[in-house]
Amino acid sequence: MKIKKGDTILIIAGKDRGKKGKVLRVHSQDAKIAVEGINILKKHVRPRKSGEKGQVIEIPAPFGVSKAKVVCPKCGKATRVGYKIEGKTKTRMCKSCGAAM
After folding, report:
1. Averaged confidence pLDDT in the chain
2. Domains held by the chain: number
3. CATH assignment at residue 16
4. What mean pLDDT is predicted for residues 50-70?
5. Of 12, 20, 30, 99, which is least packed with CB atoms within 10 Å of its CB?
6. Strand pairing of 63-64 and 32-35?
7. Could you tell me the residue range of the domain that residue 64 belongs to?
8. What are phi and psi of 83, to 5 degrees?
9. How far apart are CA 63 and CA 21, in angstroms?
10. What is the pTM assigned to this prediction?
């Protein structure tokens, strides 16, 4: 997958279109990612200990990779990701400005 944990991404489709966030988890087999502050689900948690209260926790749910584009750290644009092979190393690069990511 071209999107990795820690990347900043821009949502290009769906209810959260136009929002930016940082990738928390990558599920490469399902081609899904979980991003902080995007696609939030509410989970109701029961109290475990006596005297503890139940609560509602907000969790970012995974969504499809095709709905996101990586934001280039150099030019700041949402771009596609390419690869550059130099010797034996393969690095990701921005398709718009050519900078290494």
Report:
1. 94
2. 1
3. 2.30.30.30
4. 95
5. 30
6. antiparallel
7. 8-71
8. -125, 145
9. 13
10. 0.83
